Amino acid sequence: MSRPQEPHRQFFPFGNPFRSISPKGSNFSSKLWAILNDFERNLAERLRKLHPSGKDDVLSLSWMILAMELLCETHSDVKNLIKELELPVTDWNEKWIDVYLDISVKLLDVCNVVSSELSHLNQSNLMLRCITHNLDSADSKRLTRARASLDEWRLNISTTNSRIKNCCVILDSLVESLDLPKVKNSAKGKVLMHALYGVKVQTVFVCSVFASAFLGSPKLFDLKIAATYSWGQTFSSLQSDVNSEIRSIYTHGKFTPLKELEAIDQCVANLRQMIPENPEVEEVQPLKNVISELGGKAEKLSEGVHLLSKEVDNFFQIVLAGRDALLSNLRKV
């Protein structure tokens, strides 16, 4: 499943062009400063929570669930920030609207791709349940079928969903559009663009990790964040540690980078070796412990995929609601 690594991608090597709309030196009211500072403080805290405590955290379902939860919170914060700014849609620059709508439709596409991949994992898990059922039976024919099914499972799980490649194209376009429209005469507009930059950076990072988990090769970005962002150093540290570990995982050529799936694959490999080509009924008993272990790991994967699917759906609904609200307001203008 592993493929040659892509070269490290460096963005904004000469400094972030977004620096030009930094609020420093701008004529901001105390209320606007408070709104922006609250948003950035919350963003920095979420990035800190995502920092892995160890190597096993990276590309684990538990980390991915947390990442999606925190991403949902940030996108909800943007919705609240827009309300707090009391910036009616009639005052929105046409470019701001285009940026917001463009981001939202791309994120909805990403959600659909991730949901499709999680559905693929669920289908593979159902296959494992059938395999363990056959292995539990004292029947040599079923053992033979189970042996062949283990090979089928490995082939199925290593097949890359073509839609994931689509997700990579979307991520590339999101990175290319990180340089948001410049704002000259609107303090509220500057706060809005400042917040949208933060949410886009977090979104690109999280989605790139998800793509790396499912793609079969690392899909990572090395984003350079200007010092004018209070959360920049926290993000850079997080990005460096997570990207380094993912690249290390692929360097070692593992069957799959997803931790829970890798654990299942090890059990499958052990079972595959223990079942002879022409198994006898009495050979079932020595397999019991490994079968039980496989069942437990498959159940853990199933629970993790279920929880992650719920968070992805929640994210989809948050993005969709924000998009619908903007479009609704535009119709009233």
Automatic annotation (TrEMBL):
Subcellular location: Membrane
Domain of life: Eukaryota
Residue intervals passing through the bilayer: none
Keyword Transmembrane belongs to the record: yes
A GO-annotated cellular component: membrane
Pfam families to which the protein is assigned, alphabetical: ROH1-like
Membrane topology term: Single-pass membrane protein
Keyword Membrane: yes
Keywords carried by this UniProt record: Membrane, Transmembrane, Transmembrane helix
Recorded family membership: Belongs to the ROH1 family.
PANTHER family named among the record's database cross-references: BPS1-LIKE PROTEIN (PTHR31509)
Protein name (Swiss-Prot/TrEMBL): Protein BPS1, chloroplastic-like
Organism: Cucurbita maxima
Name of encoding gene: LOC111499286
